[in-house]
Design a protein that fits this description.
The complex is a heterodimer of chains A (229) and B (283). Chain A is an all-alpha fold and 229 residues long. Chain A is built from six helices and no strands. In chain A, helix 1 packs antiparallel against helix 4 and helix 4 runs antiparallel to helix 5. Chain B is built from ten helices and ten strands. The N terminus of chain B is likely disordered. The chains are: A mainly alpha (229), B alpha/beta (283).
Chain lengths: 229, 283
């Protein structure tokens, strides 16, 4: 195939690379934030908060380039859908970074309070679900893999279930006011991780839209129309 | 000086935006291939260009945009003295190329046009073979080296070689419109210019041929400074490094409204007049 818009398409590739960089940072931040929570490592937690600006800076760079490409290159068809994906996925990844920062701030807020092992295990389990989802979403983008993108909602289900049921563990801590205070904060951590999973699903939906041009959301039972080769 | 070059006019320069148009303002700039200093161009009593004060960055692509009749083509044709051929045409101010005003009596306009080549709106191959179209300019300029090599090199640079290498003896007219335009670019390249002026080089071409020429222009800027007039704002946005917006005053004299990095001009123009034009609120 002859390439007539090589500079434009190189710019699109560079934007995708920036998204991948953001995803790597977001994964690292979430892992470190949860590590800090599990170990009570306040120094690590502060580091996570400070490092959030690295993702923010990448997102600002994505936005800056995005505007320039839109203004100069008038993308159409799949290029236009990719531009839509880049902006929305960039926003999702930036928000994941914010969630990591929120978790890290909770480490400081709960310093010295008693903890509950069952709740920590739930949080660890949620982390082990949602962080690989970021990888899956980005892999679906890189490989342009619709089936992989469509798997994200089912990968997210256990995280949603754990989040919905976290209140029961928190309620079990009600007899000890200090423990209850800590546990209520853990509901916020659970919610933050659940949102990370949701954001990964959002990226998967954008990938599906990129590939099919049909849907912005994964509706129940949706079967994409095959596109002509 | 309003600088078309490495300077982004919206970022960190001391340009007083309320200065009258044409007033000098200092700006950082990369090396300039060509500059205009208070350039005014007249056709008889009509002033077509008013106080154009520009600097065209070396080995970069500069697009001239603006409404019909604003003087874009007049400005372009002044840069290699094509307007000398128009009865009643007169110039005030300077166009500096390699440190010399191109209107100095010592400057040979034919030699100037060799060094500052022109590609026109409609492909205009000579009624000769593809080979002769490319070789002709070099031959009359006394080219003494291997003509075959020059023809091949020029056609390669114009991204046409693969399509014509087996039919160099066929007429230039046998080619498609887009191929003819690339042949004209090869012809311009063959005389080893430093600057190539392009006057709406794709307006007679279909979209695919247009994109092909735009890609070619990107490749050519490695070796040449390119100044292109285009009616197509999207083309200026896609294909240029720097953009000059020219408008016309109530007397229909063209003046430079704004110039700067294309990315900035199309996302965050400095002047409201530019914003209005590129967003289609002109007139």
């Amino acid at each position: 195939m002859t390439e007539f818009r090589s500079i434009f398409h190189a710019e699109l590739n560079q934007l995708e690379v920036l998204l991948l960089d953001m995803a790597k940072l977001a994964e690292g931040q979430i892992n470190q934030a949860v590590d800090a929570l599990l170990s009570g490592d306040a120094r690590l937690a502060r580091q996570v908060v400070e490092q959030d600006r690295n993702i923010d800076q990448l997102y600002v760079e994505v936005e800056r380039r995005w505007h320039e490409v839109m203004a100069r290159q008038t993308p159409v068809a799949s290029d236009l859908r990719l531009m839509s994906l880049i902006l929305q996925a960039g926003h999702s990844l930036e928000r994941m970074g914010d969630q990591a920062s929120n978790i890290a701030k909770i480490v400081e807020a709960t310093s010295g309070l008693p903890t509950n092992q069952t709740i920590l295990l739930h949080i660890q389990e949620m982390r082990s679900i949602v962080v690989p989802m970021i990888d899956t979403a980005m892999e679906a983008l890189v490989k342009r893999d619709l089936n992989l993108a469509m798997r994200l909602p089912e990968l997210d289900d256990p995280a949603d279930w754990l989040n919905r049921n976290m209140w029961k563990e928190v309620a079990a801590c009600a007899s000890d006011p200090d423990l209850l205070e800590w546990a209520i904060h853990m509901m916020l951590v659970s919610r933050a991780l659940e949102r990370v999973g949701d954001r990964a699903v959002d990226i998967g939906e954008q990938v599906a839209f990129l590939l099919t041009g049909e849907q912005h959301e994964f509706p129940e039972g949706w079967v994409p129309t095959p596109r002509p080769a | 000086m309003t600088t078309v070059g490495a300077t982004d006019l919206s970022e960190g320069m001391s340009l007083d935006l309320n200065l009258p148009v044409g007033t000098k303002a200092e700006a950082d700039s990369g090396p300039a291939a060509m500059e205009t200093l208070y350039l005014n161009v007249f056709y008889g009593g009509f002033r077509a260009i008013k106080d154009a004060d520009l600097s065209f960055a070396d080995k970069q692509i500069t697009a001239l945009i603006g409404p019909s009749g604003c003087g874009k083509s007049t400005l372009l044709r002044t840069l290699n003295r094509m307007n000398d051929l128009v009865p009643g045409a007169r110039v005030e101010g300077e166009v500096r190329f390699q440190g010399q005003n191109i209107f100095d009596s010592a400057v040979d306009p034919v030699e100037l046009r060799r060094r500052v080549g022109m590609v026109f709106q409609k492909p205009n191959p000579f009624p000769k073979s593809i080979y002769q179209n490319v070789a002709w300019g070099a031959r009359i300029n006394g080219f003494k080296e291997n003509l075959d090599d020059l023809v091949e090199h020029s056609l390669v640079q114009a991204a046409l070689w693969d399509e014509v290498k087996d039919k160099l003896d066929e007429s230039g007219y046998s080619l498609s419109g887009g191929q003819q335009q690339r042949l004209c670019i090869a012809r311009a390249i063959a005389v080893k210019p430093e600057i190539i002026l392009m006057d709406e080089p794709t307006s007679a071409l279909d979209p695919v041929a247009t994109l092909r020429i735009e890609e070619l222009i990107q490749d050519l800027k490695v070796n040449y400074t390119i100044i292109i007039v285009t009616h197509n704002m999207q083309q200026a946005a896609r294909a240029s490094d720097h953009t000059v917006f020219i408008n016309m005053d109530s007397n229909r004299a063209g003046y430079v409204v704004e110039s700067g990095a294309t990315g900035t001009l199309f996302t965050k123009p400095v002047r409201q007049e530019t914003e209005d034009y590129i967003t289609g609120r002109f007139g």
